[in-house]
Each structure stands twice: as C-alpha cells, then as structure tokens.
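User: Run a structure prediction on this.
Assistant: Running it now.
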Amino acid sequence: MPVILGIESSCDDTAAAVLVDGHIRSNIIANQKVHEQYGGVVPELAARAHLQNIIPVVDQALSTANIDKKEVNAVAYTLGPGLIGSLLVGNSFAKSLAMSLGVPLIEVNHMQAHLLVHFEKSIPDPSFPFLGLTVSGGHTQLVLVSSPTEMEVIGQTLDDAVGEAFDKAGKMIGLPYPAGPFIDKYAQKGEPNIPFSMPKVPGLDFSFSGFKTNVLYFLRKQQQMDKDYIQNHRNDLCSSVQHILVNILMEKLEKAVIKTGVKEIVIGGGVSANSGLRQALTKQTDWNVFIPPLSFTTDNAAMIAVAGDFKYRNNNFGVLDRQAKSRMSL
C-alpha cells in the first residue's frame, strides 16, 4: 500500500497531494492572487509565492490525509515543463524532503501527469491506447498514449496555447485574469452569433494567434461605430469566442480519431474544465470519452502523485542532481 506525496509547482499554483494505494487522500492547492493585477503570471512573483506556500501546503496535505511524513514511501515532484523559478522551489523542497526521509525521489513530466491522473482509482480509467488532448494556458497537444511511459505528440500548437487564447480574448472583452472561467460563465447567457474566423492549419497541428488578431480587429471596428459595443454584447462575444475555440479543438480531435482509429479519448489541463468543451465531447457517442473531475483539471498535485505511483511500482526513481527543466518533451 504505497503512500506517494506529490508536489506541483510548475506555474503559479503551489500544490501537494497524498496518494494511498492509488486513491487520492488529499489534494491541496494554494492559488496566487497577486498576478491578477498584471493580467498574467509574473515569474518572479510566482517563485516568491511558492517559497511562502510550499511548507504549509505540504503540511496541510499530510494532515488532511491523516498521514505522518514518516509513512511516506516516495516523494513525486514536477521536473518540468514550466517556469524555471517556480520549478526550482518545488524541486529543491522535494529533494530535501526525500533525502531527509530516506525515501525515493520520483521525477514527473507535468504534461504526462495531466493525462495519467485518469488512473486515480476513484474515477473510471481509460484503456491503452488512447488519444490525449492536453489543453491549458501553456500547452495544446494531441498525444497518442500507448502506455504510461509511451506517449507520442501527433499534433500541437504552432504558436499560442488555447488557454492563452481564452485569456487574451477575454482581456480584449474587458474580463479579469484569468479570463477563461468568465468567458465560460457569460457564454452560457449568450449566442455564438459573431462569425470569428477558423484558422486553417494542415494536419493535426493548431494555431491560435490568427484567431486573437481576428478578435482584436473585429472589436476595434465595432467600437469605432459604437463605443459601448463590448458592454452591450458581452455575452454573445464570450459565446462566440468559446464556440470557435472549442470547434478548433474538436475538429483536430476528430481528424486524429480518423487518422489513428483510436476512439478512446482522454482530456486534461485547465481548459478541460470548460463547459463548452465538455458538452462537445459528450455529444460524440462513437467515442469513449474520459473527462477529469474539476479538481483534477487545473495544475494540481494529485496528477503528480498518480503519475509518480506508476513510476514507483516500476522502481523508476529520480536522482538528486537532476535539474529542473522549463521545456520538456513527452
């Protein structure tokens, strides 16, 4: 009955979770509100906040799980990818804790963890092989997953991530950061009646920079004619933004299913919380779709602990001199 302590610090959320025999006992996340006033994550401020949060977050995760640190069998942590300053805080703490407890250290790829969290024992788990769609503020990838250790990126964004597209479009509409949840909220009150353009990208790759430019120019033109256009059409703007972005994701996913013949679909990442994307996926009756609980969508340590459990059971341990990686392939 292995007890895995997971630690996540790739961006602006400090998180710790405890996994006991495949079940998450606790999943604690400390958000950083300081970035809201800047309209995006400030790396230096994020690293400082991690320094303040990591000890109380880990302590709360152990306490909530009713686990003494001496019962921990391994410490799993995010090696990368992410903001290097943020990663270094989690890396240093995890290494120090593992060494002091005399337990193995487990290195986890953040993007792999978003997909492997579906193997937490309280939720249905997919069968291999499956197609993974990872969608967040920093990544948009289509991944063919043959096993917990065999993952191949078959499509990815050529420029910006879909989460960034949500946030930047939301900023143009005057919404707070992060704008994704606000777009989702207002979209449910509006109609997707604004014809934003769909990017034309060959194959299974994505592009969102042109979409953001399209939104910018459209809003400029409308405001020249009506300075209150955004205020008067906020719900429809949000609905239209969400409609196009979800359609972009679904179009590529449908192509990937046809190309690979794989109909086992798994999504992960912060944008997987979007209600429009979830509804679009559940309408695909020919697919076997796995959508994570909301608590497993944004950056969290539960996914790090689950991914770490796979490695623990295969004696795939890390080393103390491994450096954090801001960029990391699957």
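Strands lie at 3-8, 14-20, 23-30, 74-80, 105-109, 130-135, 140-147, 150-156, 264-268, 288-290.
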